[in-house]
Each structure stands twice: as structure tokens, then as C-alpha cells.
Amino acid sequence: MSLLSILIAAIAPGVALLSYFYLKDRYDPEPISLVLRLFFFGVLIVFPVMMLQRAFVQGFGENPFVFAFITSSLPEEFMKWFIVFFIIYKHTNFDEPYDGIVYSVAVSLGFATLENVLYALLNSMDFSTLLLRAFLPVSGHAMFGVMMGYHFGRAKFDPDGAAKHLALALLLPFFWHGVFDYTLYAAKGYWIWFMGPLMVFLWTRSLWKVKRANAKSPLRMATREDRVKI
């Protein structure tokens, strides 16, 4: 594959998934410039995460369980959570529960896209391998972003449960990301038999969260009232 083909194949899954979840915002789509800014922040955190992971490998070794949860999942999901919380959580454009999903997915896919590009360039991947990565790591990052964003949305619009949902916005992606990575490392030659059901579960759960977040939009209620008045 040519360099241009590799770059397109590595970038396309992240862009396609971000477009999909952006278009799922039924009532008040977010400013594209702001979504792209969060995507870019996701790209930027790849480098500090790589440094943290290198330090963790030297400190904890490469035990599959420790590597999956501590070296891989923890720094990645914490940095995504940190960006969403400090950059967008209190922003005026975050005005309905689904917005948490849009912004969290943008950060997650920014991270996943650059990670995918680096893997492709450093490992001379062919198209079939890049396609597999689109269905697994890139798609997985999107699902973890949905989990994170759903609970950011709950926290923003449920002040009484804000602390609980802010914690879940980090803990659930951390847990499922760790499960995802550990399955790949531990199952080895027969990982497909475990990853298939896991991905079906993650996608089914994520689409349910998308539907539920849209259903809780205050703008949905306003639209209904306007229809009744007409």
C-alpha cells in the first residue's frame, strides 16, 4: 500500500464513527468547530499517554492483566476524562445530555485515530489488518467514549447524582477498556470467539445509551410543546 492509502485507511474509521455519533444528536447538533477541537485534543494526548505507558511498563512489567488495566486502560481513559471534564463539561454548548456523548466520542476517536496512524506507519500494515483495527480498537474507543459521555451527561443534568456519574464516567470506560485489552492478550489464537460477543454487547449497550441520552434532552420536551401549540 502507498503511504497515502495507509493514511486514508487509518484515518477513515475514526472520521466515519465520529460522523455517525455526531448525526445521532437529534435535537441540537453541536458546533462542528467545537467537536473538531475536542477531536484534536484527543490527538494531542496520545503523546503524554505513550510516555506514561512506557514508564508503567518499566515499573510494572508486562503481566497481561496489569498491562491491560493499569498500563493501557488507566492512562488512556483518565486523560480522555480529564480533557472532557476540564475543557467542555462546564461549557455553555454542553446543554443537553447527548452532548456528553458527542464530545467524549470526539476525544476518544481523536486518540484512536492518531494511535491507528502510528500503528499503521510503524508496523507496515496491509488493508485487511487496518480493517480489523477499524472494527476492534477504533470501534472500541468509540464505545468507551459513549460510556464516558453518557455519564457526563447524567452528571451535568442530575446535580444530586453528579459525583456518582462523574466517577462512573471514568470507571466504566476504564473497566471495559481493560476487559477489551485483556481479552486480546489472554485469548491469543482464539480471541475472536470472545471479542465477537464482547463487541456485540458494547455496541448494543452503547446504542441504548445513545437512545436514552436523546430521550432525556430538555429540547425534546420543548419540541413536543411547540407541536402541541401548533
TrEMBL record:
Its main location: membrane. Pfam families: PrsW-protease (PF13367). It is found in: Cell membrane. One of its GO terms (molecular function) is peptidase activity. Its EC number is 3.4.-.-. InterPro entries: Peptidase_PrsW_arch/bac (IPR023596), PrsW (IPR026898). It comes from the Bacteria. It is a multi-pass membrane protein. Belongs to the protease PrsW family. Involved in the degradation of specific anti-sigma factors. This is Protease PrsW. The lineage of its organism: Bacteria, Bacillati, Bacillota, Bacilli, Bacillales.
